[in-house]
């Protein structure tokens, strides 16, 4: 994962609750790879970034939700430079 000083080529990834505690970090900037051949404008998906960041377990667990720019999204949504991606585990409490 390359680190860039250009925020327009990155996605901000945020972890919450148990995920944050398990991984030991809460926010990270992730460099987006250029589209292959310049023809594919679709960015990576939350599922691809989950694996790229080596989040555990390897496959996203059931119940973990994703949000892009503070709106719930699907695991196969396309991300763009400048987006904020949040992984939200189930939260219990009373």
TrEMBL record:
InterPro entries: Beta-grasp_dom_sf (IPR012675), Mopterin_synth/thiamin_S_b (IPR016155), ThiS/MoaD-like (IPR003749)
Matching CDD domains: Ubl_MoaD
Domain of life per record: Bacteria
Pfam family, one: ThiS
Protein's UniProt name: Molybdopterin synthase sulfur carrier subunit
Species in which this protein is naturally found: Cyanobium usitatum str. Tous
